[in-house]
From TrEMBL:
Residues 48-57 have a biased composition (Polar residues). It comes from Luteimicrobium subarcticum. Residues 213-381 form the Dyp-type peroxidase C-terminal domain. InterPro entries: Dimeric_a/b-barrel (IPR011008), Dyp_perox_C (IPR048328), Dyp_perox_N (IPR048327), Dyp_peroxidase (IPR006314), TAT_signal (IPR006311). Belongs to the DyP-type peroxidase family. This is Dye decolorizing peroxidase. PANTHER family: DEFERROCHELATASE, DEFERROCHELATASE/PEROXIDASE. It holds the Pfam family Dyp_perox_C.
Amino acid sequence: MTGHDADETAAPDAPSRRRFLLGAVTGAAGGVLVGAGGVAALDGGSTGRATPTTSAGTPGVDPHGDHQAGVDRPAALQRHVELAVLDLPARLPSRDDVADLLDRVGERVTTLVVGTDPGLGGLTPTRLTVTVGVGPRVAAAFLGDDAPAAQPLPAFARDDLSPATEGGDVLLLVRCDVGPAAARAVLALRDETGLDVRWTATGFAGPPEGLAARNLLGFHDGLSIPRTDAELAATVWSRTPRGATTLVVRRMPIDVARFGAQPVDAQQRTIGRERATGAPLSGGTQADGPDLNAKTDDGQYLVPADAHVRRAHPLPAGLDGLMLRRSYSYADGPGAEGLLFMAFGADTDLFVRTQQRLDEQDALMAFTRATASASFLVLPGFTPGRGLGSVLRD
């Protein structure tokens, strides 16, 4: 995992704010209220919805709405991701303190998206999004044990985790087409919270080829996902809290060299798709789902029984719908490459049941493991009149 110096991109008043936050959060009865920052100008379009613009005049991604940005919008992945998982104190602060802290994060997100935040160092935050979530401890304490993502993930067969790389209380997920801007934004937000960093990750995505970009294995990643409003409503957006969703994040090293040493045919049978086109081995195009019943003349499945596409498909498991996967590759040096897996869903059950199927029989799992893992309730969207932390007060 990569880490950063959180003070490097602090706004001019950040050191005093950071000291105040640290004192407030760790005190026995202290609050997390801080002074108000500057309000960024938003260009209201003809629709009446605020449309942020960056300092260079390039449209940004509006952070406001029923849902947070960075889940289903923008549709195409940004080129860079910076992720930070933070910890609240062992003695959880009060509901209002945590809600106030999240409100401040939301306000800082707005200034980052429009490009006016000093923490960006003048960089243009093209298509910048910030997605904020809270971990099981926070969700259970303030929203109840039945809230989405209120329970930690179970252990899985390929887990290689340590206490320092499992779970966490607050997620900052920053994505942008400009890598340095993403890095500066996550540093600014980390400083804004004043919280300890549990683990971090950095990743990248290539340009889309058709419906999805390719990962380090050379295959398209994220072809079978919900795309329409109806599909998103059915499997991604939580019924309560309204506007929320859940996110599972797993850092998965992959033995890229060993996978790539196989003949292309063996690679394709492991995945269940053609490497060149992304089409399923059962035929069609990359836009088509696999025909899991299709067989050769001698009775062999065209999509092998242990192919990743088959094992991850919801139909054989009796599952309803698809996860919204928004994964990135990472390469931290020779032998340190892999996938930063990210999947959104109305709850974490679909991911858990799918991963258990992969553990049972999936040819791709032999090349992977998980060295960091966490789940979060991604908070409902926010507006200038209703802060990011409002759901904790409802």
